[in-house]
# Entry
Amino acid sequence: MSCILETRGLYKEFGAVTAAKDVNVRISKGEVVGVIGSNGAGKTTFINMVTGYLKPSRGEILFNGQSIIGRTPRAITRAGMARSFQVAQLFPELTVLDNLLIALAAAESPFPSLLRPLRNDGRIARAEAILSEFSILTWRDSKVTAVPQGVRKLIDIAMALIGDPQMLLLDEPTSGVSAEEKTQLMDTVMQVVSRHQVTVLFVEHDMDVVRRYVSRILAFYSGEVLADGPPQTVLANARVQELVTGGQRAHKGATA
Amino acid sequence: MRLDKTELILLGVAAVLAASGLIAPQWLVFLLTMALAKSMVVQGVVMQMRAGLVTFGQGLYFCIGGYAVGMSGHFLNISDLPTLLLIGVVAAVALAMLLGLLMTRYREIFFAMLSLAFSMILYGMLVKSPALGSTDGFNVKAWTLFGWSPAAGQAPLALFVIIVAVSAVLAVLLHRYGRSSAGAMCEAIRENEVRVEYLGQSPRWVLYMNYVAAAGVSALGGGFMALAAGHIDPEMAYWITSGEFVFIALLGGTAHVAAPIIAAVLFAVVRTYAIELVPHSWQMILGITLLAIIVFLPKGLWSLFSGQARAAKAVEAKA
Amino acid sequence: MNNYKKNVPHYRKALPLALAIATAGMTASVTGAAVAAENGKFRIGVVTFLSGPAAGPFGEPSANAAKVLVDGLNQGKLPAPYDKLGINGAEIEMVIIDEAGGAAKQVEEFRNLVQRQKVDAVVGYISSGDCLAIAPVAEELGAMTVFYDCGTSQLFSEDKTPQYVFRTSLDAAVDNIGAARYLAKTRPDAVRVGGIQQNYAWGQDSWSDFTLSMAQIMPKSEVVESQMPKVFQGQYGAEISALSVKRPDIIHSSFWGGDMEALVLQANSRGLLEDATAVLTCGESALARYKDQAPNGMIIGGRGPFGAFAPENPLNNWFTQAYQSAYNAAPTYPASKMAQAILGLKFAAENAKAEAGKIPAPLEMAKALKGASFESVSGTVQMARAGGHQAMQGIAYGEYHYDAASKKGGVQNVIAFSGECVTPPDGTSAHDWIKAGFPGAQCN
Amino acid sequence: MLSVYAVLIDGAIYASWLFLVAAGLTVIYGVMRILNMAHGSFYAIGAYAAASLVGWYFNNGVGPVWVGYLMMLGCALAAGLIVGLLIERGLLRFMYGRDEVLMVIITYALLLILEDAMKMIWGVNPYFAYQPYAEMGRSVLAGLKVSNYDLMLVGVSLVLGLSLWLWLERTNQGKVLRAVIHDREVAQAMGVNVRRVFTLVFVLGTVLGTLAGALTAPAISVAPGIGVEIIVLAFAVVVIGGMGSIEGAALGALLVGLSRAAAVHYAPQFELFVIYGVMALVLAVRPQGLFGRVLARKI
# Structure
């Protein structure tokens, strides 16, 4: 399978702190990759660099074989890489439907129409379809502020997905959601995502969730990729167990 | 072009209003003309408010529109009303295309302050121009319409009918703009700019377009103001004038395209009676009104009407 | 289409409701308005600054003077020829309006005065911009209008064939021609001239009139410094330094109000006014307030024969006394000018050949005032310029003198110049007249 | 050469006055994120209070002059405390958490109300309390006659600026304040009584405003509208320096003061634009102002 995303020798320094250190990753089309790591391990930094929010200090990022270093998040999104956020990034004073319609209109054209209405039958049909896929159509006309946290996470993902991206980056899709809801939420998300045949990379803390859905795991520690491979291999890795999944937060002896 | 219900109501009200101009007292006709001219500037403020930006310098474009009309009459001997207004709008749009490049980099208080600075620079330049009458300004020449000039004493009424018609068309256009993708995108930027960027849309481009369009609309108001009052002065660009537009914008709220118009009319009525009844403390009345609106009607006067409509709906549902 | 019709936003219903309420409000305001009018009284709209920086020095004395005069007239207390009750026997009613807010707003309020309040005449306006904007509207509406203070030379060059618009105050050019003439008489050896003006039309015009006049009247003088600070700035430290550095003999200023007082205080305490003589064209308006903070010998004017420069006559004696007893202060020049405008209006109404007790039509009043001469607190006023619509009067300058014993300031060495000496003839702009060397001027 | 010295002296005097006027504005904005349009009214209230009381004292009494100076300070303090507490306790505390721009408009409404309220209390006639200014006499600096009162203002401004800075940087209270400035929520979580801090800071800002007015009053004629005139000036200084920064306000004041003095001496026709020119220039290069911090949004 062809490679969709590749990073070569990616570094990111914030003053004295190194948030990314020689990150080399290749992701193929259609893969579902889980990213794990403790807080501050560099997971979100990685996503932020790949989506153009942060500029790497050094290194190269290729999307579909083209360098996207220095491109804006907007350009990268238009190239086909969408993302969701750790804290759902929505338009709180608007309705759920409008949130999706805006996402759709944005995906359709970089120059929004001045006089043609946002709401047209075609767009509404697509928005409703995706809301049904996520089983949240009942919230269609509610303001986002009136919607529970779990649903917001789904809207966030639906907005990323409605523009038909080739690759979807999900930053902790289950954070802020209660433990009982997590599995159900991830089930929904992964079902929809697989139906849309999009390459997925997601960040997750819960190992059970990760194990359930991914074909491959990237384990981050202190800005470095500690291990990369199928779940059983990575999770069996002694250093991953010590530094990531074991819950030990010991920093001594860390490979700095 | 199909019109929806709101648009039909707007056009209908405009027709009634224009007709009632024939029987209304002349002072009221004039007051409404001025209020409608102002409401156009307020529309420009509201357009930006919907995108989350509060401008304390919309007087800049108001003034450009007014001076373009006045100067074209004096120096180019143009008296045709549409041409005059068009010159004003074009001048404002040209300036906005330039300033917009800078302005769209700023948000919140910085946007407010920078917009204020630019309008004050224009104010300073006009004050320094004796050829344009400095602070005294100058009188605007009488207008004609496609070669027809109104009979003596009929100009205010004729202008009223014209401004009502233009306001109605503008309201329909702005109504559509508010519901268009671009209009929705403005609200989205106000709500969450980062997300808009991550949807592949350029917030700066949307804001730029919105800024330029708002400038054009405001300049139209300035042009009408110049024709109606027959006089222009640099006060139009002074920050207190811009503050008044923000005041009216808040008074109406951003919920509906008719809100700025109703607010502008109400403001004019309240002010003219406040000046007459309490000539020494009308500012205080305005201040208290403004505070009361912020405290009790944070979404503007419009929330009063829509709130009632909602209550009425609830009663209907129960029955 | 069907999909979102269910979700019609609630404001759809709000629009007709909102419009209905707005319309109802408008109707109410229309019907409520005309009540006061048509009650047989002579209604005068008085417009002057009630708020902002011009309210204290100009607006308040003007409004006070209007009240004193209207009360006096209604009670028939004025000396002849103004001893008839009210105006032409009709009681006077005054509607007072704040001039603040700019010309566009004033045009609106003027229309309200004439068309809603149905006033029979409007007296007012300090700001030149307001006068310029009001004049065409007054002509359009056919409303008798008397400007009492604004000084722009543009007024009657814009309103070329005035019918209803009169000005009983003097063109600002007169102030500065008079100032130059006074200097020529009292400071013939002065050479170095500096100026400080507020940076707006008034200051700019004053300075150009003054420097042009000086070039004619005192050709040896040279302008060494011109400062134009922002109006209402209040702090003039840097400007005073810049003037000091140039060591002028004369410092001309058209400052007024708080700015003028602050300038005098700051310049005096920094020694500038010891080395140079200040000429303040509006200086009289703060006569009672300088105390020992202004040097003796400072030249001040009152924009005509007003205030402290007003002559002794029965009218002025009555006015000064009535004003003094009502407000515990002597009337300053804005007060005298307001009185003059109202007297001019009374003269016009009573010579319009209307029946006693009746209110004459505006055109009748205008015809009566056009080119007339009437008695005023400042002596005889001739409406001798701009086709009989612009007053011509002399102007006086004098030197400030503070009497430490009585703690009162006064004027000394007053020199008055006749109207013919300082007023450009009809058809000639002030600038052209000055540049041509004042052809036809008759000076005493 | 004389005019170079004059520019420096005039610039320093004007800058110190600007700093006095802007200090309260920047303190309030820094901590409370309120761009206070009514600051000009506080200035005017201080000026009116001082001018009316000091004028009364000198016109009626034969008391010693130094009492007049004390009265000026007393007036500023009393007026600031009363007005500040009234507005903060009576109005603003119900508004915290609202949008920053909405707060601007609330204070704009306050400005309209206060302008007329002042007119009701003090009338429209100017107050002229020149004695404290005139009594101090003048000195000759580099050939230029300078008012001692103005020189004193430079001193007051320096002392005030330094003590504000020391208070913020070197005391425990200052630490608490900086914590609030840095992150309001975290400070609250750490047990800081943010509401009390707000009351304290608002009253401090108000007192700084009235103090500026009281100190200016003897040199000017106190009349309606003086407050409105200085708002834009103070805004410009604060925006140039970086909103909420004391050292920024000082530098902004110095920049504007010197540019303005230079313009007055060398190019009087540009004096009107200096302030906005400097502001537009600084903002174009450093949008957050000279000492402003850029806040990145966390995603």
Residues 1-71+204-247 of chain A form a domain with the Rossmann fold fold (CATH 3.40.50.300).
